[in-house]
Design goal:
The chain is an alpha/beta fold. The chain contains nine helices and five strands.
């Protein structure tokens, strides 16, 4: 089984590219979903987060107020490191377990979306890494369209490695600046390459 990592800058099109891969028959796992699972009420990470950040980060039903927690941690690198120390090992355990399960099932390719792939040293556990990228101007336009302020955008971008470094370290780059059809074409070319035996 080919173990593929997908990364890139925030707002650069990772989810769109992952969905294209999935429609082409690749098994896809998004660690953003796993990040939500590990902080559900009753999970060990939930308890540690409440202990570290206080009950102010919970809503009336006891679930994490994700937007409030994000506001706190992306404004303070030390708080972000504290949160990552709680969540990242658990997220990693889950995606590794899913990859192992898919390998036992005999799947041909498995792709895991990891925004902080290089930052967390995950590349050593994958056969190749694909970086999704676009220009900084397009990235910021997309994030503003989500309703993010420039302050929020700057906080998120500064929490990740520069996209140029991610592109340089990746095996492949998918450029999402153009039309969706162009992105789809890049995905199909990669799949043709992998399915012909190259990785």
């Amino acid at each position: 089984m080919k173990r593929i990592g997908l990364t890139g800058g925030v707002g650069m099109g990772k989810s769109t590219v992952a969905a294209i891969f999935e429609r082409c028959g690749v098994s896809v796992l998004d660690t953003d979903q796993l990040a939500r699972e590990v902080v559900e009420p009753g999970q060990p990470a939930w308890s540690e987060i409440v202990e570290a950040f206080g009950r102010e980060v919970l809503d009336a039903s006891g679930r994490l107020r994700r937007a409030e927690l994000a506001r706190l941690v992306f404004a303070d690198p030390e708080l972000r490191r504290r949160l990552e120390a709680i969540t990242h090992p658990r997220i990693r355990d889950r995606w590794q377990a899913r990859m192992s399960e898919w390998q036992r099932e005999g799947r041909a390719e498995a792709l895991v979306v990891i925004p902080l792939l290089f930052e967390t040293g995950a590349e050593g556990e994958l056969d190749c890494v694909v970086c999704v990228a676009c220009t900084s101007a397009t990235q910021r336009d997309r994030l503003r369209a989500r309703g993010w302020s420039d302050e929020e955008i700057n906080g998120r971008i500064s929490a990740q490695w520069a996209i140029e470094e991610k592109m340089a370290r990746a095996h492949y780059v998918i450029w999402t600046e153009g039309a969706l059809s162009a992105t789809q074409g890049q995905v199909r070319k990669l799949l043709d390459r992998w399915r012909s035996g190259a990785i």
